[in-house]
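Hypothesis: this fold can be encoded by more than one sequence.
Test: take the structure tokens below, design a sequence, compare later.
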């Protein structure tokens, strides 16, 4: 019989353990939520061409909702001026330019796409 090599020794110190991730509370398309500090996901479907909101740069380089057109998709979803825009179609807006964001939310933007916002406007980084 062929001799086999001994198995390598493994110690907890030599094995990298994944760090536990804390996930924020998510609410999906829930206008009845009473918290002002939740992260909300909204799905813009194929038929939702004009979303009816504009954005502006925040002081930290992100984006906030600047205005919401009355009767628009965004108004129906209860978007408010000052809400923090987090991501569009799976891409963090921190990696996007204002032109990229405006293109994504325009009537020519890719649909369906998920839009994530943080509903709280108490954060001083997003003061208008």
């Amino acid at each position: 019989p062929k001799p086999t090599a001994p198995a390598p020794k493994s110690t907890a110190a030599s094995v990298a353990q994944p760090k536990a991730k804390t996930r924020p509370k998510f609410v999906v398309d829930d206008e009845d939520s009473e918290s002002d500090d939740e992260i909300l996901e909204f799905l813009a479907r194929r038929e939702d061409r004009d979303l009816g909101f504009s954005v502006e740069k925040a002081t930290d380089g992100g984006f906030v909702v600047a205005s919401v057109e009355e009767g628009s998709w965004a108004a129906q979803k209860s978007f408010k001026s000052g809400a923090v825009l987090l991501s569009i179609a799976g891409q963090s807006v921190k990696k996007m330019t204002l032109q990229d964001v405006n293109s994504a939310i325009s009537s020519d933007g890719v649909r369906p796409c998920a839009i994530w916002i943080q509903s709280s406007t108490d954060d001083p980084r997003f003061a208008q």
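The CA atoms of residues 83 and 119 lie 5 Å apart. The longest strand covers residues 39-44.
Hypothesis status: open.
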